[in-house]
Every structure is written in structure tokens, then in C-alpha cells.
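[SOLVED] Need 3D model of a two-part complex

Original post:
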Amino acid sequence: MSPLHIKKGSNKHSAYNLRPNFSDTTERHTLAVLVDNEPGVLARVIGLFSGRGYNIESLTVAEVDHTGHTSRITIVTTGTPQVIEQIKAQLGRIVPVHAVHDLTVEGPAVERELALLKVEGEGDKRVEALRLADIFRANVVDSTLNSFVFEITGAPDKIDAFAELMRPLGLIEIARTGVAALPRGL
Amino acid sequence: MTRQMTGAKMVVQALKDQGVDVVFGYPGGAVLPIYDEVFQQNDIQHILVRHEQGAVHAAEGYARSSGKPGVVLVTSGPGATNAVTGLTDALMDSIPIIVLTGQVPTFMIGTDAFQEADTVGITRPCTKHNWLVNDTKDLSNVLHQAFHVATSGRPGPVLVDIPKDVQFASAEYTPPQKARTSHYQPQVKGDMQSITDLVAAMETAKRPVFYTGGGVINSGPAASQLLRELVEATGIPITSTLMGLGAYPANGEHWLGMLGMHGLYEANMAMHGCDLMINIGARFDDRITGRLDAFSPDSIKAHIDIDPSSINKVIKTDIPIVGDIAHVLEDLLQVWKSRGRKVNREGIQKWSAKIAEWKKVDCLRFEQKGAVIKPQHALARLEALTKDHDRYICTEVGQHQMWAAQYLGFNDPNRWMTSGGLGTMGYGFPASIGVQMAHPDALVINVAGEASWLMNMQEMGTAMQYKLPVKQFILNNERLGMVRQWQQLLHGERYSSSWSESLPDFVKLAEAFGAKGIICKDPADLDDAIMEMINHDGPVIFDCLVEKHENCFPMIPSGEPHNKMLLGDASTKGAIGSTGAVLV
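Solution:
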């Protein structure tokens, strides 16, 4: 019997040889998806990403028009330019999706995220945490003798930076909302 | 005037208002109220299948052959889960079908009730859209929307899940004219600038080729008509995918035959060597393209498709046009004519001469000698003896499917029903039942392999019950032929589980259902046997014993581009000569 000698990644032995020769540099895009707020619509969007192997970095959703029952889903995703185009086209195919906006290419956009951070500490660390919170314009929304909960709003990298600083000062828990975004100007 | 009625009655009323005359289905606890209403009327005929998968494939056959959406009615739980294969098949091949499923009452959803399944959850990835109707007052609106979504844009399957209490409760019926119009309105007109760009490319191209697909068929008869006009007027050669056969006639002057993994040599060579590829309603499927980085290296690629997600999915397109094929072709022809009907005559003449050389290779030639019927011969004879009939062909999936595509000629759209994208064994027989329902007087033949055919053989009961004279033309090689072929070429001739053992006696099987069975193993008897099949007024199982180890050629080995085709067993032996080449 002849052995098969198949190298990993080889497509010679397979009935499937799809290796698109598109660029493989990845980009990060923020998409705003306007949908009918009907049961299952979020599952359709998420199922599309998992079913086709796309990435989700963050996702937020809420009804934004209570009379028209439309929701806005903001998705931050990464992929090659070709995959990003596919994601937009595939989202556009979902029947309850009204519009897909790529805020990354449609001009400058404001991106904001809210985070709650619980920091445990006493003495100097506690003072330092408060001082840094002031610099980052984070608010104290809960306080005990040995802990704070800070509320911070900003672009995701600002929250990342704040969280990094809080880590050695006793950060024990963090909750983030994911990105909400709107284009700048009219 | 308000029209109060029960949800169950609404279903029947909505189907009538949508012009439905036949429903394929299987009853069960959660759809009994609807079946009760179906019983009390005569406008819609219900065809009782023997398995829900059969119902969906029958509806697909009905839809593909008639251009009208197919309708399925099944119960909750297992009824719905058995429909999943058919739904996925219809999604992959863009077939408009509406599947209505019963569901446990709303107040029992989520309690693991008897025959409860999360039908909309299970079918979300395999439908174009689906709905769970929680209130009878929404039901008629949703049903009309379901027809709209299934049939507009790129067609596809939809599912409406109707809990039993919603079927019993009453509400006002909304007729289709008053139904809430969906915001879902896909773009049908193509961008005029892109169309003009394509015309300009067509005017100068030296080696242009049309590469057409199922989208032309789905767009309707007008699209096929316009395509023919365009091809005849320009003289540009045309090839088609498996799904698009019949849009341009197989006896047409510019026809190259099917392309792809088992496509014709001249078609694939033309795709490889062209300088302008005009994709009309096809999707660069992996069975078509072969190796992507060597796919048609020197061509400008134009792509007309109603689905924007099909464009630039795997192949970069230079001229993308989003729109309905018929609309775009109409504009394209008009622009081309208004610019003076120009083509590069000299270039196309040389190109046609090159193609004529490729045709001389005669890649489909075979020799029928000896006492055993070659499958190619069986199909060549079937073609010769049935081509003048009002004929519809279905297939199962495998070698016989490729041979049918190669050796049968399709001169009109909607005459060829095959499972392309999903490759569903067991598709063809129930599909032939759906086709015969849509065309009661036509000759409907399902070209099958014995293994595929057994997957839905229970539908013999359906064919007999409704006196549907479908002809089951089984090329019996006692093998899972395509699997065996791949194992021979790629897996060192280790034939793992690829033969059919303990096969039934197909003649006795036919007789057990009260149908006619014919067995044929001698090439000398073949013509008479086929004529006997055609002339029998009723379902026939035709057991055609064929050469067991015949391989399907031409073949593009995987990982190779179009110009590296294997043409027959001799070239295969060369290709797998060294150890490394076992991989082909």
C-alpha cells in the first residue's frame, strides 16, 4: 500500500482547494447595522459571523426607535479587506437588516465605550487609583473602605490604557459595554 | 369588510390567494387544524409524501420545473427536522420554496413538549428567512411576506412555524394586496456605467467567453431568451455551470458544453485561455474554478449577479454588476446595439478556430464494446430515444449526475433538476414527483445511481398513490461510483465502504409497489428496454446494469487549474505514476 504523504496545509489530496489569493493583511472595521427589532434578529447576525468564520471583537445592540421597532447593532470586526466586504454583503442579505454602514470607511466617526472597573486596595494604592481616575475622568460610582467601582467612558483604547494602569493597583473585575459609534458631522 | 377566520383557515386562504395549487406534506399532531382545513376544500391538492425530506425535494422539483414557488406542509419536531436537508439544498441552489411547520402551542414552547423542536433556531442558517408566528393576527401578513421573500431577489427557501393554538384562534385575514409591504426589495436594475464598461470590453475582446449559471434560469424565461439573443448577435462562445444547463440550447451554434471539474475540455480550456470572462448568474463555485491562483489568468472578469455577496467572494471581479439577469441583459443588449453592435470579429474568428481545435479532442468519446453496458452508452441511447419528447430530467448525485450533464442535451430552461450546491443524494426521485405534478403530461425521467436512489425509495408509494408515471432510470454499478473513483485516484485504491451490497431486486421492488420494473444488462436489449420504459403508462424502475469500474472523465484533479484536465484512464495512469502523484 502506498502511503499518502500529505503535508499539513496541502490542498493536493483534497476535494476542496479553495485558497483565495487575496491580500492577507487584516483591518479593523466598525459596522453599524440597522435592523428590525424582531425575535431572533441578533441570532441571525451572530450566526452569520460564527457560521462563516468571521471575527467579532465587540458587539452592542439596543432598540433605538421604539415606535418603528428598529435596533442598532454596532459590531467591531477584523478581517482582510475582502472578508470585510463579504461581511457587509452577507449582513445586507439578512431580510430584517435595513442598512449596513461601515463607519471606518464612511468618514470619521465617534466611537465610545463604557466600562465599570472594581479596584481593591488600601493606603497609597487607593490614593493613586483615585488620582489616575481623575486624570482619565473616571467617576466613582461605588465605594467601600477598601474598594472602588469606577465608571469610565471613552474610546476602547483609552479604556484599555486605564485598565492597564489599574491592574497593579488592585483591579479585580471589569465590565465593558462594547463600542457604540456614530459618524461625525452631518 | 373584515374577514374573521381561524389561523388554520388563513393558511389555506393565503395559499389560494398566492396561486398555490399543490402542497407536498405529511400530517402530524401540531398541524392537524391545517390538515382539517385542507380536507374541506378542493382548490389545493395535497400530495402525501412518505418522508418529509421527500416533500421538500418534491417542492424543489416543482419549483425548478415550473418557475413557481413550491409549498411544503409538515408537522413540528421530527417533521421539521426531516425538512432540514431539503431546506439547505434549496438555499444552496436558490430555489423558492415555502415550508409551513406546525409547532406546539405557544404556552408550551420551551417546555420540551412532545414533538417540540426549536424549528426557527434549527432552520435559521438553512433558510433565506424564517418566522415563528405567535399571534393569529400576524399570520396572514407573515404568509404573504414569506412568498415575497422566497421569490424576490435571489430566490430561496423560507419557513413559517405556526403553533397549534395560533392555528385554532381567530383573527382578521389580510389579503395579499393589503399585506404590509416588506422593506425587502432587492435591486433589479444594473448600474448603467458598469453595463457600458462591460459593453466596451466586449467590443474589443479577442477571446471572450460567456460563463452562465443557475441565476439565468432563476431570473425567468425572459433572461434565457435575452441570453440567446446576445450570444447569437455577438457570436461569443458560451459555457454553463451544472445549474445553468438549458438557458442556452445544447444544440446552439456557440455552445461549448458544461464547464468545471467534470466539464468539457473545450469549455475549460476556453475559460483558461479567455481574455474576457462574462459571468452571468454563476458564483465561481469551487467545482468550477479549480486552483484559484491559476484560474483564468489572463482575463478581465465581469460578473452579473443579483446577490452582492456573490461578487468578489472568491474571485476578484473587474466589472461587477448587481442586478436581475433579465433586466441587466436587456440594458446590455440595448447599449451594445446603440453603440453600433461592435465586436472584434477578427479576434473572435481566431478564437473560434482555436475552440474548434479543442473540440476535435472529442473529450466525451467512449467505446461501447463487449457484453456490458457502458453508463455513457446508456445515457447516449436515453438521449437519442427521448430528446424529441416533452422531457424533464432529474438526477441524484454522483457519477451518473455528471454523465447525465455531459451526454444529455438541454435546449430549454427549467428542464434539468439536479442538486448542485449541496450535492444531496436522494434528491432526484422526490424531485421527479414534484416535476410530474407540475407537468402531468410530460416525460419525467430521474437519472439515478442505485445508491442515491435507495436513499428516498419510499417515495414509490407516493408515485403509485397519485399515478405519477415517473421513470427511474438507475445506472446500477453496485458501487458508490464517485466515491470509488476518488478512492481509486486519491486513496491508493483502498475502496473503503464504497460498494453497494445486499441490493434489492429492483424489478421485484417495483412489483411490490405495484409498479413496473425493467432490468437490462445486454447492450443489444437497451433500446427496446428504454422504449418499453417510455411507453409504459405509470411509474417504472429501470435497473440498468452497467460497467462497474467506469470512471467519469474529463476531470480536473483537485489543486489543478482548468488546463490540467485528465481526459481518460490512460492520462490518469500517467498522472498517478509516481508516489507523490497518488495525490493527483
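Edit: The two ends of chain A are 70 Å apart (CA to CA).
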